[in-house]
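User: For a reading group we're discussing how well predicted structures match intuition. Take Beta-defensin. Before you show the prediction, I'll give you the sequence so everyone sees exactly what went in.
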Amino acid sequence: MLPDRSSSLSGYIKLLFLALPVLVGAPRWLSRCSYRIGRCRQSCKENEKKKEKCGPKRICCIPDGK
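Assistant: Thanks. Here is the predicted 3D structure of Beta-defensin, as structure tokens, for the group to look at:
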């Protein structure tokens, strides 16, 4: 019996649904700023200082060089 084409197509769709959350969440994980030194966050940690804005609700936080 020959393999059914729909079975390979459904495999690709399953792979797409597994990869989709990773691709959608990646920009949040990779949001870097200030020449990739800082990270875009809603508020900076204690050992970080504010550098610039990263859009309307986030700021660029760079490590404090103390």
